[in-house]
Design goal:
- Two copies of one chain form a homodimer.
- Chain A is of the alpha+beta class and about 240 residues long.
- Helices cover about 40% and strands about 20% of the residues of chain A.
- Chain A has helices spanning about 5-15, 20-25, 110-120, 120-145, 150-165, 180-190, 195-205, 220-230, and strands at about 30-35, 40-45, 50-55, 60-65, 70-75, 95-100, 105-110, 175, 210, 215-220.
- At the A-B interface, helix 3 and helix 4 of A face helix 3 and helix 4 of B.
- Chain B binds a DNA duplex (30 and 30 nucleotides) through helix 7.
Amino acid sequence: VTHSALMAKKLESIGVDLTGDERAAIAAIPCNIQHLKANQDFVREGDRPTRTCMVIDGLACRYSNGEGGKRQIMSFHIPGDIPDLHSLFIRVMDHSLCALSDTTIASITHKVMLDFIDRHPRIGRAFWRDTLIDAAVFREWMVGIGRRSAYSRIAHLFCEMLLRMQAVELADGNTCSFAASQAEIADALGLSTVHVNRTLQELRGARLVAFEGGKLNVLDLEGLKAAGEFDPTYLHLDGYSEAA
Amino acid sequence: VTHSALMAKKLESIGVDLTGDERAAIAAIPCNIQHLKANQDFVREGDRPTRTCMVIDGLACRYSNGEGGKRQIMSFHIPGDIPDLHSLFIRVMDHSLCALSDTTIASITHKVMLDFIDRHPRIGRAFWRDTLIDAAVFREWMVGIGRRSAYSRIAHLFCEMLLRMQAVELADGNTCSFAASQAEIADALGLSTVHVNRTLQELRGARLVAFEGGKLNVLDLEGLKAAGEFDPTYLHLDGYSEAA
DNA sequence: CGCCTATTTGATCTGATTCAAACAATGTGG
DNA sequence: CCACATTGTTTGAATCAGATCAAATAGGCG
């Protein structure tokens, strides 16, 4: 998959359909490809990026370091995601971005992006929509961390990752790649590694998921959704037509 | 304060400076004023709003109801905030908005907003920036709920509310209105009412804040910031100039 | 006054953390 | 091809921050 086909697929996955012209315009965006090793930061808290990145392959995360060595992962990013799109209008990064496995990213200069948005306002709005969906995901994670049990939180995360991977056609049925370690899941859900481990065993015991070797295999999606109180509305994967 | 002056002030508070023309254009936006009683929802989960609202006076919040009667408040909204700006591009609300005290809001139709954004792309970008800052606040709350102690979380929230109120010139020194009950603070921070009450007593005991009768009075801002591990960067209140 | 809502206190319980150590898997250099 | 370092997973035991349950107190207001 080329980076432009991926971007088109991503935009379609959030309900934007593109004209042939728009597709061609996306294909013409100049970008740099970069290969990252696992655990490599590609944007750091405090940076003032001049480029914006799309994940092409692999898995990335957004995190911030609280005092006392406590890391909070705020989102996972799969191919098609543009995790620092916001840097177009928020100059200073208030968090870092890191590759969790070996990952490929494509970066586009802000100047190119801003020009592109000016010339293609419909796609500009789609990008805006994309950042708004990111925000919806943050809110959902807040609810999870604030109000759900560990069991529920992990189930919810697995549902989210599977659905997002399916939306960009990177899942194979109910199986998809999810190369996060238990420690990383713990950092994402506000739990300790030990507790994630034990809770994962419960989920396995309940025959809801298999999660091993960076592969997520959802054995019982309905059961997992129920366990995670998962309602996919917040992902806003369905189409939208602009208000008249 | 008129609604248009408030919107201008809000945009300036996030580092956008407006030309006279832009100011006039804002003043010409037609809107409806609505008075809400305490505890009145003005947008509900599942709605597909055709208008977007700005808080003029009072205090509102964004919340969602988890299973088992657990409410999670995801943000508080003070005058100048436009809590459902995202509904322009995300049709279905995945949460509700509610007035916490008697509150006045101004609403603008989506059509008017979209036309306005088309005609004033610079302000359109400022609105985009505003939604991005909201997202930054969600992320910060995630860190708080996931990784900080109750003591820290409450201190952090108080710092945030004071700084935001100061930014729109609604604070009187280190004192401002914050008409949330202890139960509402609990719902916002993922704590129980009982624990918020006890922790509040600790903060009082440490002579950091007085919080009573809907008034927040920060006695020792530096101490409170330290207690809350508060770094205001995420509010992005400083100016930004567009990338070249 | 009597009603309703918010705050406060006390006592008990528990989900999750922490500390510590074993175990498994993978990779690296000699 | 093995010794060993490294990173991730698993188990056990002790502890704690914060939840829960229950009830008292304090305001505000029609």
